[in-house]
């Protein structure tokens, strides 16, 4: 059977719809709407950088302008609807997914026990340090790394022995993150944070692999086994490949060819009802939006380049002299294509949103209509970040001139 060919336009539309970037935006936006959005995305990445807005807030705001920060905190801290752990990075994840992280806890335990660097961090009395951390949390309740005298260099991010013990117990499932205070983790026993029925669930490794691959595909629209494995980082590539072979035999998946931005075709897997999914996916809105550098739509840089022709690299960790664009550069999406990027900084003290640099993709011009649209997008972003004064004139002049 000849694989179905998916045009680049259709592939972009399905991909953006799968990433909740096609709207519509409900108003008012309640806490349960935020929970539904996180469930649809699968998780929302956490990041401490606050140059414009923390990643988790900007990711959700990009999908609904009515998003409210306090809802996410309440869902995690008060309602136990979300838990914090690792996917490809630290993330908030729907609580009902927690049982599938048990296999990750086991893998983390084996990895930590075999890591000389980890043992060096915790020191020669590691078992004693862990006993002390357990005893203090049992006695005092949730604690932060700063509550221990040996927290290490660098304030709350320092990795002294007790911080290493906290991370060991969290990554292996004995502790959980009860909340964040000033973005610092508050660690407590999982039994105090995770509902009993959810902690009691014991899915098999096969069940977790099946869940992880199915749920990843539902959120990607189409994918390779490598992309399925990378989505949650729960199923290693060999298991994802074996799952795909079995699912193809059961006719739950089909092979497809996806057209890239350059016209080339690449093989992928899709659900058996891919044609219905393509028909149901609405077009994205024409309005411009700035996305977080950590947005799930561009998390896989290779995929973003193949599908959208958009070559993006976050330069936060690149030395300043070697940066091509800037420290915190936001991608700009218009309809179904990425049209540019901007180096942005929120100056909260004087309520000013500074655009330090602005670049359109090759072949695009900053027409008057497009400039107005960019300013509208900046205005919405400035309202959300409480920096309503938009300082963009110089950057836009340079973009028009160059």
Structure notes:
The structure is a single chain. The model has no long low-confidence stretch (mean pLDDT 95). This protein is an alpha+beta fold and 402 residues long. α7 crosses α8 (161-171). It folds into three domains: 4-16 and 204-280, Arc Repressor Mutant, subunit A, CATH 1.10.10; 26-200, no CATH class; 288-401, Aminopeptidase, CATH 3.40.630. Helices cover 42% and strands 18% of the residues. The chain has helices at 8-18, 31-41, 55-61, 69-77, 102-113, 116-122, 126-140, 161-171, 190-193, 196-200, 205-220, 225-232, 237-249, 274-280, 301-308, 368-384, 393-401, and strands spanning 4-6, 44-45, 82-86, 90-94, 175-181, 184-189, 253-259, 265-271, 288-290, 329-334, 337-347, 352-360, 389-391. The strands form four sheets. It has a five-stranded mixed beta sheet.
Write the layout of secondary structure elements.
Blueprint: E1 4-6, H1 8-18, H2 31-41, E2 44-45, H3 55-61, H4 69-77, E3 82-86, E4 90-94, H5 102-113, H6 116-122, H7 126-140, H8 161-171, E5 175-181, E6 184-189, H9 190-193, H10 196-200, H11 205-220, H12 225-232, H13 237-249, E7 253-259, E8 265-271, H14 274-280, E9 288-290, H15 301-308, E10 329-334, E11 337-347, E12 352-360, H16 368-384, E13 389-391, H17 393-401
Parallel strand pairs: 1-7, 12-13
Antiparallel strand pairs: 2-4, 3-4, 5-6, 7-8, 9-10, 10-11, 11-12
Helix pairs in contact: 2-4, 7-8, 11-12, 12-13
């Amino acid at each position: 059977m000849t694989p179905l060919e998916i045009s680049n336009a259709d592939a972009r539309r399905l991909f953006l719809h799968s990433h909740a970037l096609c709207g519509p935006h409900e108003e008012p936006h309640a806490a349960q709407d935020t929970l539904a959005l996180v469930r649809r995305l699968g998780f929302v990445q956490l990041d401490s950088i606050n140059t414009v807005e923390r990643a988790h807030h900007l990711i959700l705001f990009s999908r609904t302008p009515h998003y409210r920060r306090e809802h996410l905190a309440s869902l995690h801290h008060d309602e136990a609807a979300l838990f914090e752990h690792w996917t490809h990075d630290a993330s908030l994840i729907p609580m009902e997914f927690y049982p599938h992280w048990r296999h990750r806890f086991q893998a983390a335990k084996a990895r930590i026990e075999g890591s000389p660097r980890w043992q060096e961090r915790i020191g020669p009395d590691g078992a004693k340090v862990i006993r002390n951390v357990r005893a203090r949390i049992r006695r005092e309740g949730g604690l932060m790394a700063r509550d221990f005298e040996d927290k290490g260099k660098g304030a709350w991010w320092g990795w002294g022995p007790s911080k290493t013990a906290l991370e060991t117990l969290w990554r292996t499932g004995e502790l959980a993150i009860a909340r964040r205070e000033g973005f610092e983790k508050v660690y407590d026993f999982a039994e105090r944070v995770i509902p009993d029925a959810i902690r009691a669930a014991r899915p098999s490794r096969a069940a977790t692999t099946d869940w992880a691959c199915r749920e990843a595909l539902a959120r990607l629209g189409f994918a390779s086994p490598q992309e399925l494995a990378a989505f949650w980082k729960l199923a290693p590539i060999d298991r994802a490949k074996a799952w795909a072979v079995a699912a193809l035999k059961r006719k739950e998946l089909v092979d497809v060819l996806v057209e890239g931005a350059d016209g080339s075709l690449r093989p992928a897997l899709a659900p058996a009802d891919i044609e219905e999914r393509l028909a149901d996916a609405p077009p994205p809105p024409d309005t411009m939006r700035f996305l977080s550098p950590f947005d799930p739509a561009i998390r896989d840089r290779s995929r973003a380049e193949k599908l959208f022709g958009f070559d993006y690299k976050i330069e936060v960790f690149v030395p300043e002299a070697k940066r091509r664009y800037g420290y915190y550069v936001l991608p700009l999406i218009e309809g179904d294509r990425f049209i540019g990027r901007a180096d942005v900084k929120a100056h909260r003290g004087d309520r000013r949103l500074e655009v330090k640099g602005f670049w359109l993709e090759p072949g695009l011009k900053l027409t008057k209509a497009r400039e107005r649209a960019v300013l509208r997008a900046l205005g919405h972003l400035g309202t959300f970040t409480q920096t309503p004064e938009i300082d963009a004139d110089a950057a836009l002049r340079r973009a028009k001139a160059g």
